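Form 7-S
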Amino acid sequence: MPAVELSRLHTQIRLLLQHYASADDFARALADLYEFYSDRTFTQSDAGRRDLTLPAYNVVPLITHQLELELGKMCTENPLSSLDVIDVLWHQEKREPRFLAAYLLGKLPVEYSQAIIDRLHRWSTPNEDRELLKYAHDVGSSALRRQVPQKWLAVIQTWLESDNSQDQIFGLQSLLPFIEDADFADLPKVFDLVALELPHPQARILFTLQTVVEALARRTPKETVYLLKRALGQSHSNDLTRLVRRALPVFPEEQQHSLKEAIGKPAL
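Output:
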């Protein structure tokens, strides 16, 4: 991997942008740039404990940052071409262009909210890489969360009310960035939406539902206990009881004690 000279990289990116009007040509030129800076000495052990399921160029963060900076401007200046680029990049084999596609989706003007929503929904398939999907939900929905949060929450509600478990999973995943955003204040709306799934959860959504419950517990444990105890009072679902047991370690000791009593588990 050659050393990164910032002036040279800026020139390479300017040349890359000449292909922006043709998404396929742009993707090929971007692949050449990634390949030029690819670290071929990188091994799986270099990632520590992180499970890398997608092949990667393994470029240094500076490359990613500069591409995001320059291409983010293109999303504002030329959103239609950007949508074409995003679609092509998402279907590339390696992780860097796919993560870049998710990042650019969050940089589109909010006037393109339906296009953003359609892509997030379409991308969220059961066999997709979990790390990539989490990133897509976090950054791809950023414009929606900042500028039209109530519209985005209304769309999420339609998925949570669907009979399709994959729609329900997608809706729950879409709530996580709201919960993890310390500046988002309308948590009562999030609690109302989670309450739609708690009393009688389908088996396929349990993992994602537990993830959401744990995120709420980290953000506001007392209110989350109230939500769970109310759901337990409405339901005799064994799946809900198991979910609560599995989520117990996330709660502070006082809330753990309260939940153990609610599910009939002796407090330790």
